[in-house]
Write a structure and sequence with these properties.
Largest sheet: 5 strands, antiparallel
Number of strands: 39
């Protein structure tokens, strides 16, 4: 799927003004000059979308914004989050007021938070069922790697527990394996349109027997600067425990996330899985998970046969009784892995047994037992890449999982200053090939408030990561997991030189 982020698009567009009056370096007279490698430069603008956090009257939501200090980033600039339905891109009043765009007592154009400087988190909060979806923009020095975390606590009722999601950029296609229309589940697809024109969206559902007829999911209109929560059970009469949801945009762009709520087992946000690929990594299963369920789907015409392996602290192992998984084309396939981590850190690694067939995948993870269960999701994710950023960490209850499935890697982790005080701290870790480590995360010296973590691979094989927040509430082991792909703070730009003669041609 085309997951190019707004930061990449905006960064490239902004740099186009520089290259519009330039020409690529010409070859030397001998014709022997080789093309130079593209430069890696900080992006100049980033946009993020946060879904409406909850429909519960007793929900309390915290927003945390963070931009890592990036070498070469421009000075000045700003970052802010505002309610969808507030100001449009050109500064005029927004024209759409979707269900997610309801007010909270604040003016629509009043920022939820306004960061003061890169390197220090900024926080904001809201409460109740009327909190809107948010549209955020950052430019200048605030743009490279800008990250916003939305964390909601719900004390009781459907989906009670801890719900967390990273705000993401708009795109045109999303895959969500792990959704459900089963009795006891209430799942919504939240669609947020940041643009000045309406977006037209299709929502397709795939169950254990293939595509599910859902004509009500076709040609859905999301008004400009508005957000719409779509209840999945209104799109079909079928009740299925394991669904793959495909969101495709016919015109425009949207941000998309699934809010999966259970009557008895809590709930969380299900973020979009990474692009369909032959191999997938699902990092950071909590070591005390009592039940882990894998949901996989292949969108192509061929069936997929996958090896299932667990990257444990001691290396790659095969779960007994679940060595392989056969995924039929166009059908969602699920398998219960039980307490697969058995008290140790772990990540799931899926690889083809023979022919490579692209798949998408996610894990539904449960902690606790009986009426004290809580649920979270881990979608397959891309590698950390250059750098990944995680906001809204605390001195207690934060777990950072790092895994290197294909080779040993060295990783640098930096804890930022605290939102209310504290000094940054950096540690370096070595992750052995095929293992997962829940590392002893650094904590800012003299921490006050929350802090951010940045993960930067130094050398070796690709690294995958996730961050878990945990808090016991009324005996329920509440938790939420966010994967940490590249934060897209840098963009490749071809090397150019000025050639004003082009204006005379």
């Amino acid at each position: 799927m085309n997951r190019t982020t707004l930061s990449l698009i905006a960064g490239t567009a902004a740099l186009a003004a520089v290259t519009a009056f330039a020409a690529f370096d010409p070859p030397s007279a001998s014709g022997a000059a080789a093309p130079q490698a593209a430069a890696r430069l900080p992006v100049e603008r980033t946009s993020l979308l946060c879904p409406a956090p909850s429909m519960s009257d007793i929900a309390d939501t915290a927003y945390t914004s963070f931009t890592p200090v990036t070498k070469g980033a421009g000075g000045g600039g700003k970052a802010q989050l505002q309610a969808a339905g507030g100001q449009s891109a050109d500064g005029t009043d927004g024209s759409g007021k979707g269900k997610g765009g309801k007010g909270t007592g604040k003016k629509a154009d009043e920022p939820v938070l306004t960061p003061k400087a890169p390197g220090t988190p900024a926080t904001g909060e809201t409460s109740g069922a009327e909190a809107p979806a948010l549209v955020g923009t950052a430019d200048g020095g605030f743009a490279p790697g800008w990250t916003v975390q939305e964390t909601t606590e719900v004390a009781a009722g459907t989906g009670r527990g801890l719900l967390g999601v990273n705000c993401t950029g708009a795109d045109t296609e999303f895959w969500f394996p792990g959704a459900s229309t089963a009795t006891g589940r209430t799942d919504y697809v939240h669609l947020t349109n940041p643009d000045d024109s309406a977006a037209v969206v299709d929502i397709e559902l795939y169950g254990k027997d293939g595509a599910i007829k859902s004509p009500l999911g076709e040609n859905l209109t999301v008004k400009p600067h508005a957000s719409e929560p779509i209840l999945l059970s209104t799109l079909t009469d079928e009740r299925q425990a394991d669904l793959t949801v495909h969101v495709s945009v016919r015109s425009g762009r949207v941000g998309a996330a699934v809010q999966a709520l259970d009557d008895k087992a809590g709930g969380d946000w299900l973020a979009a899985a990474t692009d369909p690929a032959g191999s997938q990594v699902l990092p950071g299963i909590p070591k005390d998970a009592t039940d882990v369920r894998l949901i996989a789907f292949t969108p192509g015409d061929d069936d997929a046969d996958l090896k299932i392996r667990l990257a444990s602290p001691d290396g790659l192992i095969t779960p007994a009784g679940n060595e392989t998984l056969h995924v039929k084309s166009g059908m969602s396939t699920a398998v219960d892995l039980g307490d697969v981590t058995r008290g140790e850190a772990g990540s799931l690694v899926l690889t083809p047994t023979d022919q490579t067939v692209p798949v998408v995948a996610a894990l539904q993870v449960v902690r606790g037992k009986g009426d004290k269960k809580e649920t979270a999701f881990i979608p397959a994710t891309a590698a950390v890449g250059t750098r990944a950023t995680s906001a809204d960490n605390s001195a207690k209850g934060t777990t950072l999982a790092l895994t290197a499935p294909t080779g040993t890697a060295t990783v640098k982790v930096t804890a930022s200053a605290g939102s209310e005080g504290g000094s940054p701290v950096t540690k370096t870790y070595t992750i052995k090939s095929g293992t997962t480590q829940n590392v002893d995360v650094p904590v800012p010296a003299g921490l006050k408030g929350t802090y951010a973590l940045t993960v930067e691979p130094v050398s070796g094989a690709p690294v995958y990561a996730s961050r878990t927040l945990a808090a016991t509430e009324g005996g329920v082991p509440a938790f939420t997991v966010q994967t940490l792909p590249d934060d897209h703070g840098m963009v490749s730009v071809p090397r150019t030189e000025q050639d004003l003669s082009i204006l005379q041609k």
